[in-house]
Amino acid sequence: VIIRDAQPATVAHTTQSTTDITVNGNTIHSVRGANFTMQCTGSGTPTPSDITIDVPDDLSSSVASSLIKVNKEGKYIGNLLIDKVTEEYAGDYKCCTYNFVNSERYESCVTIALAVEEKVTVTQNSADTD
User: Among residues 13, 40, 54, 60, which is most buried (max CB within 10 A)?
Assistant: First the structure.
């Protein structure tokens, strides 16, 4: 079967910023102790067959097992639930999706870098102003 409007799979990093995390492109800055959902969205025609998020090697398998996959409106969404971030969570996460276009497998991956830092409180002191 030849699919005329076929599009090889692509994947995008779609995590949303919150008060505890800042998303800048494929980089996430999180404060220690934050809870958030790392999200990737795969798209293509036909709809991607799967989506995965590989976690840094030294992280426990419990984090990797908290990946929830949703096939919705022609997109495959992977939500990695991250609970109480610690320094061990820092590192590169690899999100991949794939589909088959006219019997050829097309895979697309994106690397998401997670940086963990102490919660920063900004205090203004009038003595510091010029």
Answer: 40
Considering the entire predicted model, what is its pTM? 0.84
Contact 99, 47 (CB under 8 A): yes
Distance separating alpha carbons of residues 91 and 52, to the nearest angstrom? 16
Give dist(CA 9, CA 47) in Å, integer. 8
Q: Are 29 and 35 in contact (CB under 8 A)?
A: no
- Do 42 and 75 contact (CB within 8 A), yes or no? yes
Tokens of 115: 């940086």
CA distance 123 to 107: 47
Tens digits of residue pLDDT in 92-104: 999 999 999 989 9
The pLDDT value recorded for residue 8 is 96
